[in-house]
Model the fold of this input.
Amino acid sequence: MNTTDNLIPRPSHVALVDGSAFTLAPAARIAANGSAVPVAEQLASLLRGATGFELPIVEDTRPGDISLELTDTFDGGPEAYALSVTVGGAGLTASTAAGLFNGVQTLRQLFPAAIEGSNPGVGTWVIPAVEIADAPRFAYRGLMLDVARSFFTVEEVKEQIDVMTQFKLNALHLHLTDDQAWRIEIHDSGSAGNPSWLPYANLTAIGGQGAVEVPTARPARGREGFYTQQDFKDIQAYAASKNVLVVPEIDLPGHVNAALAAIPQLNPDGQAKPMSTTAEVGWSTLNSDLPATYEFVREVLGQLAAITVGPYLHIGGDEALVTGHENYVTMVQEFARIAAGTGKTVVGWNEYSAGALPHGAVIQFWHGDLAPVVQQAESGGSPVIMSPAANTYLDQKYAPDSPVGLEWVEGGPFTWAEYYNWDPAQGGLKDHQILGVEGPLWTETVRDNQQAQWLLYPRAISLAEVAWSGQEVRNAGDFRRRLGALGERLASQGVAFQEAPDVEWS
Ligand code: TNX
Done:
């Protein structure tokens, strides 16, 4: 076995050029121009650590170099790339920086595992001669981080981005608000004398101090905190440099207790609710009869849209169990309209398709009946993000004795295999109706990046291959072998992963 057999996610086409190989030598350079340069910088800093080589970025290519080339004529979609490794060098070609970034992740895995280390001097940097042509099956390949139940700092979110992107995952959904807390700064607007004025700054001043409390979690209480609007911009800029799109979620009209605690006017009796730490779900709601409800949603979504770089705004819609069907439909329809009015494409959990949605509104399927979602995809042009709980929920335990995680999803507990052995094209959904795949990490029991990573990996790697690789190149036995070979790389990156007992880890 050589490294070309170990790639994750598995590329569409891999042709080994027998017997030949490329050795990265101390004098090697990285050739790149224009918008290929930032990608080249990332490749260089990746390779410099373990090799100790200088690897300067240059404009022209000579034998022994790695070249990154952007060309309009390269055909294969916005994230596709081609990689050619010969005895004389390695060349990546793509039509976008995103394509090159994906190619860099493949190139990285072709080097020996020691490339992941940061102490120079060990290893010879040989990679097999190979021709690879590769493109993703789905455009959206995401993880969700619930920063509401327990907070993750900007630095921690960046670390998560660093790990996920080596598997070509390209979307990070941030669940910013819930019953227990509100994590995104919303500026006060207008004047306090105006009768429709609402104290938006309380959302973080009060709501940012909340967190979940679960006796079995370590520690029991989640972490407090919030992102300023500038923090949120910083996260997005970092994400963009690694080809990751951030999707912010404001969960409406349920999961809103922190908002009800911060803004008295959102309550029919005008009294602020107490903050709550319970992990119970489905017990809070906005009120469809209060004008303040719509004023609030307009202001919050307006400010959020204004600082969101990506095309999507997620408005939640899940588990509004005390809202009443008619009130629910009234509100989600109006909220979806308001979200669309900001110029963004609205996304919601599949319950929200009970309302009449704007054309092209994205549905994130997590549970229940897929049939109405398929119907909406056909008649309403709604792309679908597939997050069926029993195949994607990263908060679930691996085994009954897992130290962190939940166990409410039927069919569990779940390992890398359940998250690998499924096809997003199910129930009549066609590939072109599927925007992609997302694995949510709810954080009722998760308190830091170590615990998060342990639940994420290796299962998020299963999802990365489900989302990137065509069904025809996927195989569970082969994936298990490749996962094993990856162990050493994850370990040298310092990633805390679950050492699945049925995998032979390197
Ligand atoms: C359901 S899944 C939720 C979340 C919880 C999760 C685990 C979904 C859309 N909503 O609010 O965190 O269960 O308890």
